[in-house]
Each structure stands twice: as structure tokens, then as C-alpha cells.
What we know:
It holds the Pfam family ABC_tran. GO terms for molecular function: ATP binding; ATP hydrolysis activity. Keywords: ATP-binding, Cell membrane, Ion transport, Membrane, Nucleotide-binding, Translocase, Transport, Zinc, Zinc transport. It is a single chain. The protein is of the alpha/beta class. It has a single domain, classed as 3-Layer(aba) Sandwich (Rossmann fold), CATH 3.40.50. Strand 6, helix 5 (147-164) and strand 7 form a beta-alpha-beta unit. It starts with a strand and ends with a strand. It is globular, with a radius of gyration of 19 Å. The chain has helices at 37-45, 80-84, 92-101, 117-129, 147-164, 198-203, 205-211, 213-219, and strands at residues 2-8, 11-17, 26-30, 52-54, 63-66, 135-139, 167-171, 184-188, 192-196, 228-230, 236-238, 243-244, 263-265, 271-273. Bound molecules: adenosine-5'-triphosphate. Residues 8, 13, 31, 33-39, 173 line the site of adenosine-5'-triphosphate (ATP).
Amino acid sequence: xxxxxxxxxxxxxxxxxxxxxxxxxxxxxxxxxxxxxxxxxxxxxxxxxxxxxxxxxxxxxxxxxxxxxxxxxxxxxxxxxxxxxxxxxxxxxxxxxxxxxxxxxxxxxxxxxxxxxxxxxxxxxxxxxxxxxxxxxxxxxxxxxxxxxxxxxxxxxxxxxxxxxxxxxxxxxxxxxxxxxxxxxxxxxxxxxxxxxxxxxxxxxxxxxxxxxxxxxxxxxxxxxxxxxxxxxxxxxxxxxxxxxxxxxxxxxxxxxxxxxxxxxxxxxxxxxxx
Length: 275
Ligand SMILES: Nc1ncnc2c1ncn2[C@@H]1O[C@H](COP(=O)(O)OP(=O)(O)OP(=O)(O)O)[C@@H](O)[C@H]1O
């Protein structure tokens, strides 16, 4: 995007956005409510045409999209398999492979309206990656997911990006969840407020002015490494790659939340750090 902006009814929704996403790169848009994140993502997708400036995509680019809102009548029966094919036809093998990649192939026949928040986001991700996109656009991919689930989904997103070699443009409404794997953060406030690596942005005066000094500390919480990962089916993958049914034998015998070696954001804006 070059100096891209959208104007509606005499008002600029967002303006002057310079942005590019390369293959293998993760760019995260942050900013307060109404700051133009979704509008920017829609310009990248080609859903909205810039009123000003330019937005262009490589010809033939395949795009996977997880929208912020779904227009679905939740009173109607709809299973995951059918949901996967609503926007583009997928054969059984393609649907299953994508659901396997996001760890929810066991939910193929489940009713979509019965899924938990975390399961739903994994199904949405599966639908977005099923056609092996070159660019993945994720508008708040952890909505409805609890804190530990958020970490698992962000880990999954960065793994998917590596495996597919695609570029990822992600919107994170919640400042607390911008992960260290993000290459570039662009902070919007109707225009580009500041940009850079997560660390650089968290220290930028413009960012601190917009969100307050505590936000910088909160941004740092994702700069950690797990010594093991809880897989969606309940098993545990350890640092050496081995998989076991639980994590009792390793670093989380009693209360595993104390042994992940990562910082955790407490309720409110306090930040606490686990050993
Ligand atoms: N089609 C439209 N016509 C008029 N105004 C719009 C339109 N779409 C969005 N807006 C307005 O543009 C502004 C930016 O909206 P946008 O959805 O891009 O913000 P956002 O940063 O994604 O917000 P949130 O964090 O709340 O999802 C908002 O004030 C919104 O009301």
C-alpha cells in the first residue's frame, strides 16, 4: 500500500498508510477501536478501494482471510465440513488436511454453533489456509479465546506461516497479544502512528502517548519461549520434539502454569512474570 486511505461521507476512516507484506513475513496492525485496522486490511484484500493512494497485490495472488465478523445464521444446522466449503469448494481430502494442520480434524462432523471460541478460530484458520494462500489476512484471530489458548493460536499462526511460506497480515485488537514472532508492527490511529519491531514500537513515544506507559510492558510478554506445547487434542509436545499424553514427567508436574517460563498478563493492566 502506498499512502493509501479511505474516505466516506466527508471523513477519512484511515489515511496515508504505507505497508507491504512479503512472503514469509508477519505484519501486525494494532491500534485503538475505530483506528482503521479493518479498513486497512480490507484495502489489502481488495474489498475496499483506496480513495487516495494505492493498494496492489501481486497478480494471481491467492489470499486466505479470517474476517472479524461472520454473517451466519447460527440457528441453522451447519457442520464444520460444510462450513469449510461455504466460500470455496473443497474436497474431503483438502478440508481434512487443513483441519489437521490447525489441530481440529476430529471436529469435522461437529456443529459449528457448538464449537468453543478456540475451536472456532482454528476452524476459521483451517478454512483460510485450505487453498494454500500466498497471503493470509487475519482480523483478530484470537477473539473469544482465553489467555493460554491465545498463545497456542499465535504459535500455530507463526508455524503455519513458516510451513506455507505465506505472508501474514494480522490485526490484533488486544495490545497484550502482539507476539514476538511478528516481524513488523504498524500502529494505526487514523494514520500510521508508529511502526517497527514489537520492541521498537513498544518503546516509541507516539505509541506510549496513545496507549500509556503500561502498554509497552504488556507488549513484551510474548517474548518468551515455551519448553513444551499443549496440543489441541490434549497431548504435550516437548522441546526435544517428543509427544506424550501429558506433561507430568517434565516441567509441569504440579502446576504447569508456573513452569512455562513466560510472562503472563494478569487481569487489568498489571503484568506479572512466572519463574
Ligand atoms: N463503510 C463505512 N462507512 C462509514 N464509516 C465506516 C465504514 N467502515 C468503517 N467505518 C468507520 O471507520 C472507522 C474505522 O473502522 P475500522 O473498522 O477500520 O476500525 P478498527 O480499527 O478495525 O476498529 P475495531 O478495533 O473496533 O475493530 C470507524 O470509525 C468506523 O465506524
